[in-house]
Amino acid sequence: MKLVTTLFCVLMTNVLFACDFCGCFMGITPYDNQSSITMMYRYKSFNGYNFSGQHNNLFPQTYKAVAYNNSTTTNNLIGNNYQNTSIKHGGSTTTATTVTPQYTQKDYELFTSAELRGKYFIHKRIELNAIIPFIMNSNRIDDDKHSIEGIGDISFFAGYHIIDKTMTEKFQHRLIVGAGIKLPVGDCRKMNDEGERIDFMLQPGTGSMDYMTYVNYIFSVKKIGLNINSIYKFNGYNYYHEEISNSSSTYLNIFYKFREDKNMKIFPSLQGYYEHSKGEYINNEYQPGTAMSVATAGIGVDVFYKNISLNTSFQLPVYEKKLMNNLATAGKFMIGLTYSFDQKKYLIKKKEH
């Protein structure tokens, strides 16, 4: 049986920074060179400030904020000796005009998206992909809460299958290289009720046109397989001269063919992920405290029934570059449902020799 990777996720949603924005999800599929359509839901949570001793909650309570005065000190507070700024995870500071933020356990940032993805093979070795995300982000910093919804930036990319053959029935591998573009379709100018622009990190779109390159390799022997993917992204700047530095990410998936028959296939996996970015620039000036270097690890399972597949992934942080006033990564998960078409013809036919 031949194995190929599913849709290689380049840029998923907003800013290529901090919240899996330069990340990818890779699954595995037993369908060889088949076009497909996918619905996917992704969730990532930030909660608990670095160096605070606070616990990270994957699903933080999103109840109404409670005001704290400057003399309050509890296990849920970092302290009251910080400057009068509202500092968000991986974002620049915004001057506050009311009270000093208390860095409470109740603060959070949630980045979620529902994505429609399509993959189409125009040739046995060439695949075209598109991702249309609907963004649903929210946060609470001190008493300030925001929720934003909207279409995100749309991505298009193409992959070429350099290695496209199964060597033997027991030993299989495949190599794909590709490139893509992210179009600034999503809104990056959303305002709050006071007419002020909401934080760059929460916006549905980045406002910039970005480019990416990637390589994807899959290898399996008998029931054990390995899938490794790396992506590098070149980021532009938007109307506000905001820019995220070029970024990279790598995904590792070690899977086991738990069950494999004609109609049903089940592949559990161990997964690892690492992403890096130097941070945010505004008017070519670096914004301190915006660098990002984080690694996560977890488990996943891919279930295939005929032409339908269910892909899942759950990961928790194992390493993160800690910045004093930033919320820490609490975890992330993904679930996707894919239908693969029984493709027998291609727009570009293979030359006969």
Q: What is the CATH superfamily?
A: Autotransporter beta-domain
**How many strand units?**
21
Low-pLDDT residue intervals, each spanning 5 or more residues: 1-27, 64-88, 90-100
Shape: globular
Q: Would you tell me the overall average pLDDT? A: 80
Strand arrangement, major sheet: 3-6-7-9-10-11-12-14-16-19-20-21
Proportion of residues in helical segments: under 10%
Give descriptors for this structure.
353 residues, mainly beta, three-stranded antiparallel β-sheet, 52% strand
Describe the protein's architecture and organization.
With 353 residues, the chain is mainly beta. It has one domain (4-340): Lipocalin (Beta Barrel), CATH 2.40.128. The chain is 0% helix and 52% strand. The chain is built from no helices and 21 strands. The protein has strands at 4-5, 28-29, 36-49, 85-86, 94-95, 108-123, 126-141, 144-151, 154-163, 171-183, 210-221, 224-234, 242-244, 247-256, 259-260, 264-277, 280-282, 285-286, 292-305, 308-320, 327-340. The strands form 4 sheets. The chain has a 12-stranded antiparallel beta barrel with strand order 3-6-7-9-10-11-12-14-16-19-20-21. The protein is globular and about 60 Å long. The chain starts with a strand and ends in a 13-residue tail after the last strand. Residues 1-27, 64-88 and 90-100 have low confidence and may be disordered.
